[in-house]
Amino acid sequence: MRQEEVVAKIKSEYKNISLEPADNYYWSPSENKVFYVLNNNSIEAVWALLHEVGHALLDHTKYFSDIELVKIEVEAWNKAEELASDLDIEIDEDHIQDCLDSYRDWLHKRSLCPDCDLSGVQVNTKTYVCIFCHKRWSVTSERFCRPYRLQNK
User: Fold this and answer.
1) Are strands 127-129 and 136-138 parallel, antiparallel or unpaired?
2) ∠ CA(71), CA(64), CA(122), 5° rounding?
3) Where exactly are the structural domains of the chain?
4) Exposure on the CB side of residue 69, measured as CA atoms within 13 A
5) pLDDT digits (tens, 9 = 90+) for 66-85
6) Dihedral angle, C-alpha 45, 89, 67, 19, nearest 10 °
7) How far apart are CA 122 and CA 106, in angstroms?
8) Which is nearest to 105 in space by CA: 97, 115, 93?
9) I need a surface site. Which of 72, 115, 118, 142 has the fewest CB within 10 A?
10) By C-alpha distance, which of 71, 96, 69, 98 is closest to 82?
11) Coil, helix or strand for 49?
């Protein structure tokens, strides 16, 4: 199924979801819109669109910890698989796991202690603490940047 057909189907079945062409695929809770790349008819594009619609249907608006972000990504892929099944589309499980791996890798890098290199625990949105050496470090709130670990003195 082509992306245009999926867009039309979503618009007809889910009147509360707005879809708008953009440079990337993403769900904007503040605008209540799913953005998608126009004229991209690869199957991966259809999967990305269904994933973002999954976020919208699940009303994903915010998260408070890095692990919660990974959880909502899993939920959105599960919803995307449901939507795909209704459209007689199969989403490649390897693709889903590759996408989720990018979040899991991001989380792992952020959680590594800058002193002892063991995994720490997130204590608030921007701070981790090592349960082994008690080091505290700050991380950026940005999801799509390199996982900097700023040492707290």
Assistant:
1) antiparallel
2) 90
3) 3-111, 114-153
4) 19
5) 999 999 999 999 999 999 99
6) 50
7) 14
8) 97
9) 142
10) 96
11) helix
Query: What's the pLDDT tens digit per position in 15-35?
Result: 999 999 999 999 999 999 999
Q: Which of 104, 130, 128 is nearest to 116 (CA)?
A: 130
Dist CA 147 CA 112 (whole Å): 10
DSSP assignment of 79-137 equals HHHHHHHHTT----HHHHHHHHHHHHHHHHHHHB-TTT--B-EEEETTEEE-TTT--EE
Q: Which two tokens stand for residue 11?
A: 């618009």
Residue 112 half-sphere exposure, CB side, CA atoms within 13 Å? Answer: 10
